[in-house]
Amino acid sequence: MNFQPLKFSKFSFDFHTYKHRILLVNPWIYDFAAYDFWIKPLGLLYLASLLRQYGFEVILLDCLDRFDPEYLAFVGPRYQRQKRFHTGKFYREVIPKPFPLRHIPRQYGRYGWPVELVQRKLRQMPQPDAILVTSVMTYWYPAARDMVQLLRSIFPGVPIILGGIYATLCPEHAERVVQPDVVVSGEGEVSIFQVLRQFIPDVPLPKIADGLDARPNAAYDLYPQLVTMPVLTSRGCPYRCSFCASFLVAKGYRRRSPEKVVDEIEYYYRHHGVRNFAFYDDALLLRKHKHIIPILEGIISRKIRANFHTPNGLHAREIDVELADKMFRAGVKTIHLSFETANPQRLQDMNSKVTPDDLRMATENLEQVGFQRKRIEAYVLVGLPGQLLEEMVESMLAVHRLGIKIRLSEFSPIPGTREWERALQLEEMPEDADLLLTNNSVYAINQGTEKFRLIEQLRFLSRILNQAVDLGINLANDSALAQSINRGINQLLKLK
Q1: List of residues 6+ apart from 172 with CB closer than 8 A
Q2: Labelling 352: which of 63, 176, 316, 429 has CA 20 to 30 A away?
Q3: DSSP label at 182?
Q4: How confident is the model over 4-51, as pLDDT tens digits?
Q5: Number of domains in the chain
Q6: 50: closest CA among 197, 195, 194, 216?
Q7: How far apart are CA 170 and CA 420, in angstroms?
Q8: pTM of this structure
Q9: How do the residues of the chain divide into helix, strand and coil, expressed in percent and rounded to 5?
Q10: Alpha-carbon distances, residue 496 vs 148, 166, 266, 386, 489 (angstroms)
Q11: In the prediction, which pLDDT does 481 show?
């Protein structure tokens, strides 16, 4: 596909005189750990653009924006340091653990902007006509609840609408616990005008196109300082992996045109100086010759010399030499491959898409075009319902044998998925379990001391194997040294 040079201009909106003001809020994270891998509240940003198109003034309050000038001045130099590719730590305030987590031997924290800064910003802004709050992980619901309470205290009487992943998967829980005025499930663009009209009578009711290219791009210009940017080239996922809720959150699978995607990247690269872009698709490589390959070709032909990252797992079987070469030339720097498990029976049961042979071929193709093996990571699922220790260790070793790094993905049961139902059937959790207990940081603890200790050992083994990769040592081959080290590891982990 041949791309024409883009004539740069601000993405157009059909602006009218503002009649109504909408506040969009991305709350804190409440958890035992959190880290910023280029995240942004994409759902809110797409809503913001659509609302502006129909005459609304929008204000964004993103409590996870690490580059906000007021935030940086408030938290001081410790949180101003950036990691490679501008990932980094959120500001953390230790807070009391909720009652269901009282037995967890770790500190619980509020990640994101300090409460004092959030209160100050809210009190400085004009009163909105409605407030939209997003939500992500189901076990982060206390953060959404506290944010709704804070918003009500500062803007009494203003309607609060909760959307996002948690609101979609657990709407009744959200209504009961978070207590917004309205809970919206699914894509907010489809229903937001109808919902707002309950509170604002003159809100228009436009017909929202189903095609993504007909909708405005995400409103990244709302950020006072845009340093990194996620890119969503498609929505939904045609796969039905047993542990994933993507098909419940986004109905169907739709893609943006490659030209539109590259236009968006180029605009923010040249006009906002963004140098780190993260693809957040669930199925980025699907039908690659009509989608991701033209996108990469556009990045190359337009001389966009940025860094590109793939925090979501890539489908390894799609990575042939042609695609690997395009990725390398386009500037892809961070590669995470989906692997999940080496167990054939579980692969079939989970509807998983990657076999050990697929992983090997992808690794060889990536190395052939210039990627270093030690810079490649593969996700390995551990702690699945009924999963045996031998399966988890063998899956980790299957990754290590290839000279690439292991990225452990500790199981967290998600409502509505088959693994959630399996966990209930195996009585790993009660049907009325608090959503806080589904947090992957604590789920194993609730299976008992033995399960928790096992996951801790697997984390330790993962660190050993990854350090060996950095040193160029393969601990899973047949050398005498590897066999000796393996015996030591097995004794340490008490696998014998």
Answers
A1: none
A2: 429
A3: E
A4: 333 333 333 344 456 899 999 999 999 999 999 999 999 999 999 999
A5: 2
A6: 216
A7: 13
A8: 0.91
A9: 45, 15, 40
A10: 51, 42, 55, 20, 10
A11: 66
